[in-house]
From TrEMBL:
<comment type="similarity">
    <text>Belongs to the NPY family.</text>
</comment>
<protein>
    <recommendedName>
        <fullName>Peptide YY</fullName>
    </recommendedName>
</protein>
<dbReference type="InterPro" id="IPR001955">
    <property type="entry name" value="Pancreatic_hormone-like"/>
</dbReference>
<comment type="function">
    <text>This gut peptide inhibits exocrine pancreatic secretion, has a vasoconstrictory action and inhibitis jejunal and colonic mobility.</text>
</comment>
<feature type="signal peptide">
    <location>
        <begin position="1"/>
        <end position="30"/>
    </location>
</feature>
<dbReference type="InterPro" id="IPR020392">
    <property type="entry name" value="Pancreatic_hormone-like_CS"/>
</dbReference>
<keyword id="KW-0732">Signal</keyword>
<dbReference type="Pfam" id="PF00159">
    <property type="entry name" value="Hormone_3"/>
</dbReference>
<keyword id="KW-0964">Secreted</keyword>
<keyword id="KW-0027">Amidation</keyword>
Amino acid sequence: MVSGRRPWAAEVTVLLGLLACLGAMVGVYSAKPEPPGEGASPEELSRYYTLLRHYLNQLTRQRYGKRDIPEALLSKLLYPEDSERPVGSR
């Protein structure tokens, strides 16, 4: 009779793959800067606001991808032989 349990090597491989993916995602964004305490010097405040601006720009940056491709261009890329066919919903 065949056991329904996967070999332990496959489980370890999947687990290591998931850990590698999670580790890669951790370094994508920088950590939120810690605000300086009360009575901070102007240089510390300036450095904090610079780090905060960089952090916010990183979080809110434009992401370009598939959604930016117009439907006509996407149609030409997917169906180059049907270039005479009008673009529309199916």
